[in-house]
UniProtKB/TrEMBL annotation:
It comes from the Bacteria. It comes from Thermobacillus xylanilyticus. Belongs to the sigma-70 factor family. ECF subfamily. This is RNA polymerase sigma factor. InterPro entries: RNA_pol_sigma-70-like, RNA_pol_sigma-70_dom, RNA_pol_sigma-Z, RNA_pol_sigma70_ECF_CS, RNA_pol_sigma70_r2, RNA_pol_sigma70_r4_t2, RNA_pol_sigma_r2, RNA_pol_sigma_r3/r4-like.
Length: 184
């Protein structure tokens, strides 16, 4: 099938399909052009013409995803930025680290021991299994369960604000009854 025929047949349905997913008419036009460019350049990869329609809509879905991946928010910086000798996240990490030791001590013994040995003392999970006389998979399970229990404890006590990389931007007390108070 020629590209002109595909354009006449699929342009409006694809345009509507894209607009419904992006809610942006102008961007939909750009994505639509991208879709037809991909159709044109990849037409030889279509093996079964009976599957033309699903193939075209799959290209459209991927183009929408690509569009959102490329879209970066524009953030304006203030005229004057505060100067600091030490990044705030380093301070937050140190402050939260004090609390973590207190929270780790609250874990059940077998999980506390696994977390202390691997996370605080740097023991590998393989070495942990040998030290405790348990299987390697048992050691891995203890560490994972200990991490999960610690995460649940932190979530119950503190509200954490993280960036997209998992770095701590801010944290504050959620539950005054938690041991978080003893960390201050």
């Amino acid at each position: 099938m020629e590209i002109e025929t595909l354009w006449r047949t699929f342009r409006e349905p694809l345009r509507t399909f894209i607009i419904r997913r992006t809610h942006r008419v102008q961007e939909a036009e750009d994505i639509l052009q991208d879709v037809f460019l991909k159709i044109y350049t990849r037409m030889d990869s279509l093996r079964d013409e009976q599957k033309l329609r699903p193939w075209i809509y799959q290209i459209a879905r991927h183009s929408i995803i690509d569009y959102y991946r490329k879209e970066k928010p524009v953030v304006e910086l203030p005229e004057e930025l505060p100067e600091s000798n030490e990044p705030d996240d380093a301070n937050l990490n140190r402050e939260l680290a004090k609390c973590l030791r207190t929270m780790i001590r609250q874990l059940p013994e077998k999980y506390r021991e696994a977390i202390e040995l691997t996370e605080l003392e740097g023991l590998s999970q393989k070495d942990l299994s040998e030290k405790l006389g348990i299987s390697f998979s048992g050691a891995k399970s203890r560490v994972q369960r200990g991490r999960q229990k610690l995460k649940e404890f932190i979530s119950a006590c503190c509200h954490l604000e993280l960036d997209r990389y998992g770095n701590i931007l801010d944290f504050r007390e959620k539950n005054p009854a938690c041991t978080y108070n003893s960390c201050k």
